[in-house]
Amino acid sequence: MDYTLLVIVFLLVAVGLVILYSTSAYNGDVKFHDSFYYLKKQVFATILGLVMMFWVAGIDYHVWQQFAAVCYLAAVGLSIAVMLFGKEYNGSKRWLSLGPFSFQPSEFAKVALIIFLSWIVTKHAKTIAKTGTMFRIVLWMLPIVGLVGTSNLSTAIIILGIGVVLVFVASPRYAQFVGMGVLGCAFMGIFLALESYRLERLAIWRNPENYKKGYQTLQGLYAIGSGGLFGTGLGNSVQKLGFVPEAQNDMIFSIICEELGLVGAAFIVFLFLILIWRFFLIATHSRDLFGALIASGAMAHMMIQVILNIAVVTNTIPNTGITLPFISYGGTSVVFLLIEMGLVLSVSSLVE
Question: Exposure check for the chain: N or C terminus, fewer CB within 10 A?
């Protein structure tokens, strides 16, 4: 397998746990009287994810073609279950409760769609240039995108982006993507109009200082600005002490900038760039289209999510609630990210 990719994954996981503890210790102590509360849960999820990663990496990735349709149906079913029985947290219904555990089906949907679309596109590779084939493939995406988008627009955008990249990789006709771009914009417009708070986020993005809900954005920017070149030092953030709400989640990159400065933030971004580069190499050297699409899907996922998270934290785009892969707190996220890495490692073991 690609050991460079494996080392980068381990580095991101290790760095992520250190940063997570530094960022979450205060909130854990205040809310649960345990500064290690978030770290312990993340470590448990990470260990589970690593076990799953090595298990998936040891399986020939072609096996997943047989389960592609099942993965797709499971993703649709779980997305419907969230709408009907989902647990609401901070105004968003994104979780299913399984006893003492909470599960976020949208994270599973990302991996499921990569497998399913890779299978569908491979099956129709010879006719992918036809508009009809392209249209049918896009139709397969819409149920998951629509169901996830009702409660989690940011994840729906990532899923849609993954699908577009997969079709783009396989299709030789670039003009078709003008139509897909129009459909994507229409989708965005519809979902923005469905909920007034989404339109409000646009106004907050333009003038965060004029809105109470712009507080998190402003505090995040203060954290970034106070970090300077080398930061205040690991563990020395002031903004994580209740000023940036839930700092261990979406806004964790702002605390990275404050504690580690521009140099530390650039190092984190550099690790992600190497990860994406390895995905690209694996995709280009894959023995078949199915493997190339799996690696391309993971590359698209990582690239889109990292860019959107950093763009939100720096207020380049409106706040959309997107986590930073491997770094932000979230058990479901890290488990399925590591499973996704296992898929790519499986592809890498059979490259030409």
Answer: C
